[in-house]
Amino acid sequence: MEFSVADAKNKLPELIKAVEAGETVTICRRGVPVADLVRTRRATRKKPRFGTLKGKIQIYDPDWWKPMTDKEVEDLFGGGE
Questions:
Q1: Is residue 21 part of a domain?
Q2: What are 11-64's pLDDT values in tens digits?
Q3: Which among 12, 50, 53, 81 has most CB atoms closer than 10 A?
Q4: 7 within some domain
C-alpha cells in the first residue's frame, strides 16, 4: 500500500490498523517512497518489575535526608560576613 504524506496524515488510524493486520504501508513524497510503516516484531506491554535495582544502589550517607546542623552549614559556606 502506498500513500502520500498528506493522505497518510489524514488516515493514520486506518494505516495503523492495516499495519497491525500485517500489511506494510509505504509513505511517499511527490511519488518517491520515504518511509515504511511496519509492525513491530513483538507487541508487548511489560509490567514494571519492582526490585530490579536491589543491591545495585549504594547509599554512602544513610542520613543524607536529615537537615544540616548550623555548624555543618557554617563549615560548608563559611561563617564570615
A1: yes
A2: 999 999 999 998 999 999 999 999 999 988 776 677 778 888 888 888 888 888
A3: 12
A4: yes
pTM exceeds cut of 0.70? no
- pLDDT class for 5, splitting at 50, 70, 90? very high
Number of domains in the chain: 1
Going by their DSSP bridges, the two strands 2-4 and 25-29 should be labelled as parallel
Instruction: Please tell me the distance from the alpha carbon of residue 81 to that of residue 71, in angstroms, as a whole number.
Output: 16
- The letter for the amino acid at 3 is F
The whole domain housing 18 covers 2-37
- What is the 3-state secondary structure of 33-56? EEEEECCCCCCCCCCCCCCCCCCC
Residue in the block written with cell 517512497: 33
